[in-house]
Amino acid sequence: MINIPFTQESRLELINLMIKKTNANKYLEIGCDRDKIFNNVICDYKIGVDPFRGGNRRMTSDEFFSQNTELFDVIFVDGLHYYEQVLKDVDNSLKFLNPNGVIIIHDMLPRKEEESVVPIPTPLPKTWLGDVWKLAFNLSARTEVTFQLVLIDEGCGVVFKQPQEPKKLNIENSWKFYKDNVFNLPLISYTDFIKKYA
Fold first, then answer.
1. Is 162 helix (H, G, I), strand (E, B) or coil?
2. Vertex 155, ends 31 and 43: CA angle to 5°?
3. Cβ pair 97, 72 in contact under 8 A
4. What is the Cα–Cα distance from 39 to 46, expressed in whole angstroms?
């Protein structure tokens, strides 16, 4: 087990903090499930996309983005926890993000290998994050966005449309690679994130 120093703050606190900070008028959530987050986000205009339940758009994220014409201030990505899909969701979100907007991605820091297996295991473990962690390395290596990984709630990635100095890593798709390199990611405590960005 990897000893990641999470603190008790929640993804909902982070989302509402960034809504306040950006004076957000429009919020988009990908993957709503039982609306635990969606119903408690403080924003006048909210769209929640889920193919099964929750939110207010019953469709896949691919279907939503293919017909969407709106820009959003804060986008929360918590849909299918497969790297290929979450990568697509974030790239599509960037196309519909206002210049000063923010994307928040949930479930980026597994602590045990069984939390990260794909496809979805049966029976489902108590905590399952899939291989979303691969996106953390992808975003760390980009130049056109700034990426920070807040140490709360299974790891919440935050993406800004600002250039960054990329991290140079020979990225591999193995648990061993993740375990050996997780502390090379741009990890930040909630307190330090607030000081720096809010």
1. coil
2. 50
3. yes
4. 9
Q: Which CATH number fits domain 11-197: 1.20.1530.20, 3.40.50.620, 3.40.50.150, 3.40.50.2000?
A: 3.40.50.150
Write the pLDDT tens digit of every residue in 71-118: 999 999 999 999 999 999 999 999 999 999 999 999 999 999 999 999
Round to whole Å and give the CA distance between 193 and 198.
Answer: 7
Cα 156 to its chain centre, rounded Å, is 6
Domains of the chain, by residue range, sit at 11-197
Q: pTM (2 decimals)?
A: 0.97
Q: Token pair of 193, please?
A: 């994130």
**What is the spatial order of strands in the sheet that 156-160 belongs to?**
45-49, 26-30, 72-77, 97-105, 156-160, 146-150, 187-188
Residues with Cβ < 8 Å from 56, sequence gap 6 or more? 46, 47, 48
The answer to whether 18 touches 102, Cβ cutoff 8 Å, is: yes
